[in-house]
Amino acid sequence: MAKRSSLSIRIVEGKNLPAKDITGSSDPYCIVKVDNEPIIRTATVWKTLSPFWGEEYQVHLLPTFHTVAFYVLDEDALSRDDVIGKVCLSRDTLASHPKGFCGWAHLTEVDPDEEVQGEIHLRLEVLPGPPAPRLRCSVLEARDLAPKDRNGTSDPFVRVRYNGRTQETSIVKKSCYPRWNETFEFELEEGVSGALCVEAWDWDLVSRNDFLGKVVFNVPRLGAAPLEEGWFRLQPDQAKHQQPEGNLGSLQLEVRLRDETVLPSYCYQPLVRLLCQEVTLGTQGPGQLIPLIEELTSTECRQDVATNLLKLFLGQGLAKDFLDLLFQLELARTSEANTLFRSNSLASKSMESFLKVAGMRYLHGVLGPIIDRVFEDKKYVELDPSKVEVKDVGCSGLHRPTTEAEVLEQSAHTLRGHLGALLSALSRSVRACPAVVRATFRQLFLRVRERFPSAQHENVPFIAVTSFLCLRFFSPAIMAPKLFHLRERHADARTSRTLLLLAKAVQNVGNMDTLASRAKEAWMEPLQPTVRQGVAQLKDFITKLVDIGEKEELDLQRTLSLQAPPVKEGPLFIHRTKGKGPLMSSSFKKLHFSLTTEALSCAKTPSSKKSALIKLASVRAAEKVEEKSFGSSHVMQVIYSDDVGRPQTAYLQCKCVNELNQWLSALRKVIMNNPSLLGSYHPGVFRGDKWSCCHQRDRTDLGCDKTRSRVTLQEWNDPLDHDLEAQLLYRHLQGLEAELWQRHRSQNVGTETDPGEASRDALAQLLQVLGNLREAHGSSHTGPLPVEPTRLLALQT
């Protein structure tokens, strides 16, 4: 049983931002921090005061987090980025919006004195007299304090105040993880209630001290518990004047907090078995729970439910059967071929999720080189005469202004080249397409041909495949490559227009060049020869794609499983130490790294032979490193045990905050079940004779900060978490339980049902399973689960 929290974040857009550049504009981007820890950086949108990002993230984190903050900054090439403002949402605020916080929020000023973070370790005791009782406050240590100095650290000390008296600790130089172990006593006067205030400060020699946060205690309440010790989160000074809202612009956000208690696997087995039985029986089954779930699920949460169901059945090896059932249900209620799979049905949403989970690596292989070429060309491309801007093109080779006709011809030539390259790459990719994707498309093709067998509908099976492959997968990825991880940055306006026109052309090919799609935008006519040729190529490709037998499917799956594709790969810089003693220097060497479920390997180039650097079974933690440690940002450390059990650390540098968090997330996921994970670590390095973070001289010290092994970003290639998907599905069905009961009663009105038959009825079984899960969740808050595995399993027999 585990408690898990996740944040679904969508950063939509900003408006009315202040101009930070001399051109009267800004280059805004967002940084997302959870408890002051940067976890996400959006792409920069250039030269605008109303940026659109449209970026979505799913973050898994500890249930104990306090706030999530969105900082808007202006990127500067030659100086430090300007902070425009921030939106801060507390955990309590998010918890008060069960459907999520959605809307515009005003940016507020970022006051450095209010940017506090970290915790302080205190021990508080009330000592009896005579002559008078005393309050003893022991200031032990602090961790993760805000760095206030240019060197990336602080010089912290603590000021303790009570009843007009103030005492201070010593100053610990250059540390955000100081240890004091100093004790102060105050005499408690009778009748004086007062408060004990513990403040952390950064000492500065030539300027005023910087506030690092405080903790306030009610002294009379301390008297009830003579001894109190623990880590206390530092709070900002709420007494400071707040700046008026609205003059820094606004940010449109969608943020949803989801807290889940995930029960042991055996608790979900009856639900999983019942749903698998429904899928295995297909349309011949008596229960028809899947269509009932679709009917009762609202449009706004259908995508989430589709993803949960898809991942659950993917984990059971039934994804193809589940999708086939949905195909049959959709075909049964569709009379017009041209409306097939055009709605936001459970089939459409599930297929979208399936392609992202099972086909994203394939998409990258086919589409990646074409997208890179479009970004590198930076050509002005336009086919719509009403939108041509000749001044944006420049002069021709004869040093005269380019005419509109020349712009249109050059644009058509460029787009024909990109479209031809994409169709050729797609035609050659049959064997590269994952076996489960090919088998699913084969089922779809056969079902549609069976439903619309006449000659006039000969293209319908092909259009059914392309409606997902082209219209819902390739085209969206072409229009927004950043959202499909094909590029790190959004396209500029010129490249974005090229991508949009290319996506339209791909859609026309996917629609098999129908008259309806051609008539919408007549100015796309110059691409028609390539589109017509593409239709023939695409039909040939689909014919080969769906020509897969069971034996070939098994062979392909076996080949793919033997290949063990990497969880993550890419270039990183590994730390190298030169020399020995106090004059040693550090550098980072660039290598290509590959992370699988077995090891972290590296090589000089992507095509070079890889050598295992670290076996994942020996990894104990993957964490960030303080910037001051190497004078470089975005450095992570992988702590592991060598072959003889000695602790070792590999330091790897990433190029940006997103890459850093993605690598940390990937590493944490694959080591999540390692038995010897660390609970604490040193965010610094051991240099000379002490740790750079806390200045401790014991190299084997347990660590001055807590590890964050459960903080991860959700990615399309994540390992399947069967229990979590089952829990999310249970939570959704719990919300439908009243309607399910109503449906169950209406089915049995006026009939006398044999108790044995009722127990075998799928809807009755589902309601019984939901009741048992509700009981198990109730028991999880009060003590051991009373429901035994044998009893739960017996529900299905």
TrEMBL record:
Superkingdom of origin organism: Eukaryota
Renumbered residue ranges of the record's region Disordered: 777-797
SMART domains the record matches: BTK, C2, PH, RasGAP
Pfam family, one: C2
Domain C2: 1-105, 116-232
Keywords: Calcium, GTPase activation, Metal-binding, Repeat, Zinc, Zinc-finger
Domain spans labelled PH: 565-672
Protein's UniProt keywords contain Calcium: yes
BP-aspect Gene Ontology terms: cellular response to calcium ion; intracellular signal transduction; negative regulation of Ras protein signal transduction
An example Gene Ontology molecular-function term: GTPase activator activity
Location of the Ras-GAP domain: 301-511
PANTHER family xref list: RAS GTPASE-ACTIVATING PROTEIN 4-RELATED, RAS GTPASE-ACTIVATING PROTEINS
Protein name: Ras GTPase-activating protein 4B isoform X1
Organism: Erinaceus europaeus (Western European hedgehog)
Phylogenetic lineage: Eukaryota, Metazoa, Chordata, Craniata, Vertebrata
